[in-house]
Amino acid sequence: MIIRIEPDSDIPIYEQISNQIVEGIARGLIQPGDSLPSVRAFAADLGINMHTVNKSYHLLEKKGIITIVPKSGAIISSPLDFNEISFGRLKAVYKPLIAESLVVGMSKEQIHELISSIIQDIKKRN
Amino acid sequence: MTLAIFLFISIILLGIQTAIPFLVKRTIIFGITVPEKHIKNEQLLSYKKRYTLLVSLLSLVVLAGYVIWVLGTNPGEEPTVLVGTLIQFGIILFSLSLYFFFHGKTVQLKRKNNWMENLKQVKVSDLSVRSQDEMIPWYLFLLPMIVTVGVIGYTVFQYDLLPEQIPTHWGINGEADAFTEKTPMSAILMPLTLLAMQVMFLGIHIGKNKSGIKLSATGTNASRIRQLTLRKYSSWLMFGVSFLLTVLFSYFQFTTIHPDLFAGTAMVAAPMIFLAVTLASTIAFAVKVGRSDKHPVDETEEAINRLRRRFILERRSLLFQPK
Predict the structure, then answer these.
(1) What distance in Å separates the CA atoms of residue B156 and residue A70, rounded to the nearest whole number?
(2) H-helix segments, chain A
(3) Considering the domain boundaries, does residue A2 fall inside one?
(4) Mind listing the pLDDT tens digit for each residue in B216-262?
(5) DSSP one-letter code for B128
(6) Could you tell me if A97 lies within 8 Å of chain B, comparing CB atoms?
(7) Taking the C-alpha atoms of A43, A48, A51 and A54 in order, what is their torsion angle to the nearest 10 degrees?
(8) Packing angle, helices A50-62 and A39-46, rounded to 10
(9) CATH number at residue A48
(10) For residues B175 and B258, what is the distance between their CA atoms, to the nearest angstrom?
(11) What's the structural domain count of chain A?
(12) The most confident of A118-122, B186-190, B193-197, B217-221, by mean pLDDT
């Protein structure tokens, strides 16, 4: 799976990496059980700082998307049972976004449509 | 003879200097990064041609003058060497200053045409590229080292058999032609040198393994193939040369201990075989890596064509939509 980083973007690099890995899993480009390259190798390949990759891996680990096994590297976790904790965390992330959408004048239907079109986009390009 | 040597070196030097703009990375022209779609720019191509033409013409004229001068007036050894050396430095200095001249020209051209405008810098990597990496494992490089340690041990063990004069230099025919006095140090100096070289090869290998596999954002596939090929075959080459050096040095050490060991066998040709095999494998390596990314269709072009086709299809479907 190809990772594409824009150093001049407003989104921090570590977030770009974790976003793309999450999207790659959602699209099925990388499967649970696959391992991610080592922090050192990945940082060298992208030409970025090791700590940036490390931060991104730890972010993913915190979300339960990967497990970091000392010495053997980072492995994509098998799909988790959707639980209270993820629900609460995702709700907190969605909330300001949905509030913003309402403020800029999107209707409830438009928000629903946007969400289903994004899901479709992810599932389609599988 | 002196003339021939200087001429030979100058011509190799000249060859490298004239080919410089065509040997380096395609997107770096006279030290300036140029976006991939502009590298065929006519102005840039003419800069390269002018550089090559100027360097080769002037150098050839000077070299021809040198040859005529030496052959015509027979100035003797020292002036020939002096002028020959000056000419070599002259070629280097001239091509360097010309390089910087065109470097400046390219900077101006890049600025004038705003090549970097509307371009976004992206960095690309492939999550699976490391698992496709086929460099040989580093511990293989320990094998020749073990052999070397064995050779040192054997030398210490057979110290009494060693001649009073330890060879330090060999001619191309494999015959020793320079000697030093026998001491415990000079007896194992050659295998020690070999060990140092093997450590160096291991170091290069580890450094290469840790270096990034840099992919080009516009030609991801081609650059991946090239990088992987380069890594794989450079590790093979490193190991091969390390192995050959071990054979060659051990051969010399053993002939020092037992002068008649290899007499009359094909091993006498070892130095020549070593040279030929090393040269051949280096050429094979260069060709293999050089050709690795030439085969696949140019991806950028392919991607553009795909977009174009899709656009045409969509327009067509719009035209033929039933009312």
Answers:
(1) 45
(2) 13-27, 39-46, 50-62, 84-103, 108-124
(3) no
(4) 887 888 888 889 999 999 999 999 999 999 999 998 898 888 888 77
(5) T
(6) no
(7) -40
(8) 120
(9) 1.10.10.10
(10) 14
(11) 2
(12) B193-197
CA-CA distance, B267 to B175, in Å (whole number)? 12
Residues of B in contact with A21 (CB under 8 A): 127
Residue A71 sits in the same domain as residue A88: no
Q: End-to-end alpha-carbon separation of chain B, Å?
A: 89
Nearest to B34 by CA among B44, B21, B42: B44
CA distances from B235 to B128, B205, B206, B252, B283 (A): 20, 6, 9, 26, 15
Instruction: Encode A72-97 in three state secondary structure.
Output: CEEEECCCCCCCHHHHHHHHHHHHHH
Task: Name the region of B197 (left: φ>0; alpha: ψ -120 to 50; beta: rest).
Answer: alpha
pLDDT, tens digit, for every residue of A3-26?
A: 989 888 899 999 999 999 999 988
Of the residues A1, A2, A14, the best mutation for testing chain B's interface (the one with the most B CB atoms within 10 Å of its CB) is: A2
Instruction: Tell me the chain A residues in contact with residue B129 when contact means C-beta distances shorter than 8 Å.
Output: 37, 45
What is the rounded distance in angstroms from the CA atom of residue B300 to the CA atom of residue B306? 10
Q: Are residues A53 and A100 in the same domain?
A: no
Token output for B299: 């991806």
Integer Cα distance of B99 and B114 in angstroms: 22
How far apart CA B205 and CA B188 sit, in angstroms, is 26
Asked if the ipTM is above 0.85, the reply is: no
pLDDT at B322: 46
**For B81-85, B108-112, B113-117, which range has the lowest pLDDT when averaged over its residues?**
B113-117
CA-wise closest residue to B31 among B106, B85, B84: B106
Angle among Cα B88, B93, B99 to the nearest 5 degrees reads: 130
Same domain, A17 and A68: yes
SS3 call for B316: helix
Amino acid at B8: F
Interface test mutation site (partner A, options B118, B124, B125, B224, max chain A beta carbons within 10 A)? B125
Buried-exposed string B148-168: b where 16+ CB fall within 10 A, e elsewhere:
beebbeebeeeeeebeeebbe
Q: Are residues A117 and A90 in the same domain?
A: yes
Q: Could you identify the residue written with the tokens 């995702």?
A: A90
Q: How many CA atoms lie within 13 A of B206 on its CB side?
A: 11
Same domain, A54 and A96: no
Whether A1 is covered by a domain: the verdict is no
Domain housing A93: 84-124
